Every structure is written in structure tokens, then in C-alpha cells.
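**Backbone description:**
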Amino acid sequence: MGIASLHTGHVGLNVTDLARSITFYRQVFGFEIIGQQSDGDRKFAFLGVAGTPTVTLWEQSGGTFATGRPGLHHLAFQVPDLEAVHRAEATLREIGAELIYDGIVAHGEAATSGGVFFTDPDGIRLEIFAPAATGLAPAPTQGAPTCGFF
């Protein structure tokens, strides 16, 4: 049994420094702050576009993102075209974000899509991709599924 109109509402992420993460997600994605509590022991922010939350940040963890444990593998954001991916890559380079590959790469399943793979300040793996992109660097892992994180 499926739900015909099912789609992702928002994604909640644990972060170690709320102010730092708010700055990062606003710079990279252009999100607005929809709601925020930054004092006391319950610190969080709702970020999104046009009043609709896309990402919620919760300052309630320590350390860095654990890629070897069950949970989130990565979070991908689709943009309309390759030019938008290039703009995101330029922003990522400007703010000194960790890029997983040197630039934009094709997805690994002979698709015409591709993107830029990077991490947020807590090591959470992120992707910005365009569904139709040509002239990209080859897929980093041949014969692998779409994701560029392995």
C-alpha cells in the first residue's frame, strides 16, 4: 500500500554549533530562517524557502557525522540546471567547504545527471545536482549507483 501524494516534508539534522550551521546552510542553499530558538538548552532552527521548512537544525550532538553507522547516508538537493550547480560549487569554494571531488562529476549509472558532493561543517554528506547535465567529469566510481559517496 502506497500513499500517492507522498513527498519529503523536511529533513532534521543534528549539529554541534547552531549558529555556524545556520550560516553555512543559508550561504550554500539561500535558505531563510523560518523559526529559531538559540538560547537555553533547546537550540534549533527551521530553514527553508517561502515559509516552508526544508531543513531543521538541532544543536544536540557532539563529534562529527558517523558515516560508518546506520542512519543518513547523504542528503541531495536538485536544482534546475547545471548553471545552478556551478553557482553552488563557486559558493562552496568561496566559503572553504570540503568538496569530495574536484568539481562537478557525473552520476555513476550512465545517466545524464551530475552534481557537486561536499560536507557541511559537521561532516554531513550533501549533494547538489542537476538532472540533465552534459560535459561533466566522469563518474568517480564506475558501475556504482548514482550517489558519489562510497
